[in-house]
Amino acid sequence: MLETVEKTKTALDLKKVEEFAGQVVTDMAACLSGVLNLIGHELGLYKAMDGQGFITANELAERTGTYERYVREWLNNQAAGGYISYDPATRKYALPAEHAFVLAEEEGPVYLTSGFYIVASVWNDREKLVNAFKTGNGFGWHEHNHELFSGTESFFRPGYKANLVENWLPLLDGVSERLKLGGRVADVGCGHGASTVIMAENYPKAEFYGFDYHEQSINVANKRAKIKGLSNVVFQQASADNFGEGKYDLICFMDSFHDLGNPLKAAMNAYSKLTKTGSLMIVEPLASDNVEDNFNPVGRMFYAASTTICIPNSHSQEGDYCLGAQAGPAKTMEIIKEAGFNNIRIAHKTNVNIIYEASL
Predict the structure, then answer these.
(1) Are 160 and 182 in contact (CB under 8 A)?
(2) How confident is the model at residue 107 (pLDDT cuts 50, 70, 90)?
(3) CB-count burial class (<10 Å; 0-12, 13-18, 19+) for 82
(4) How far apart are CA 179 and CA 35, in angstroms?
(5) Long-range Cβ contact pairs of 293-302 (< 8 A, separation 24 or more)
(6) What is the rounded CA–CA span in Å between residue 240 and residue 319?
(7) Residue 40 and residue 104: Cα distance in Å, rounded?
């Protein structure tokens, strides 16, 4: 036995071992630094550096009311990760404008810092997830750490704000034109209502209804609408397979379809509540039908989210489809077709999403 082990060790390519060990160290550094990225967001460190050029750690601490020694170490971590620039001659730090657009511009189209709240929630739920792996039990959305809910809203909102009204809805068959005149819209699995509110703001003559089974999220969504002063949007607690009453001109599933225990039943319900000229819009994470084609940074992120959030949630519900965040077009469109929709197409693709449209 020992001889076999020694021969195996001898057969190892030590250069490959070293390279892979370096990759693991890089991942560990990224995981630890994610906590500091959130701290930078919560303390306003990124915003305080935005547009200020090179400044010292002491200047940043004074501007943010923080302790200089902590700030200096934080800055060095951020510089080591390439998030900020460092000038050795002056020992000053700067946040490049391009990086600030991603880290500090909360209303910008590529703001990503809040995504680390999702990461934080998963770490907080690690023991629950370990138990789910061992027992095979499901783990519902509502059972996650609360940071998942707000993190998901703030992570997806910039993309919806940049694309939903300007790019996605105009690509659907006559939908944007109809909503300008009125109509009814159902946003299923709306969470905190980011997508619903954006649509309601831009189509004041239409009626919007956001549905989610999670009561806490619905309460937050109603507060969001009240703050905005919107009178054309209502949020209600309801399941995806039994939401609302009457007919709708547009029914949306925004990054929620793959999370459902029974997406077929939900699609059938949508079919029964869509007007004859209406459209079903399903926005899903970008994925290929071939698993190996998803082996890239975006796919890696979505598989991680799928393992820790999407699959456990689906497994906790009736139906147990467990599509996962990387289900791919073939499976998704197969379910939509089985629900009764005849006209199904991929209306658009982005770097992170696929937008499906279906009609009666």
Answers:
(1) no
(2) confident
(3) exposed
(4) 42
(5) 294/326, 298/351, 298/352, 299/326, 302/326
(6) 12
(7) 9
The rounded radius of gyration (Å) of the Cα atoms in the chain is 23
Q: In the structure encoding, which two tokens stand for residue 95, read together?
A: 């946040």
Residue 110 lies in a domain: no
Q: What's the pLDDT tens digit per position in 233-265?
A: 999 999 999 998 899 999 999 999 999 999 999
Boundary-marking domain end, from 50, 76, 103: 103
Q: Which domain holds residue 80?
A: 2-103
> Token pair for residue 143?
């059972």
Return the CATH number at 284.
3.40.50.150
Among 96, 101, 117, which Cα is nearest to 35's?
Answer: 117
- Quick: pLDDT tens for 190-230: 999 999 999 999 999 999 999 999 999 999 999 999 999 99
Q: Among residues 46, 75, 103, which one ends one of the domains?
A: 103
Using DSSP, state whether 281 is helix, strand or coil: strand
State both tokens at 349. Answer: 């693709």
Domain count, the chain: 2
Q: How far apart are CA 311 and CA 306, in angstroms?
A: 6
The answer, yes or no, to whether residue 3 has pLDDT greater than 70, is no
Q: Residue 291 carries which DSSP code?
A: G
Residues 45, 172: Cα–Cα separation, whole Å: 41
Q: What percent of the chain has pLDDT over 90?
A: 95
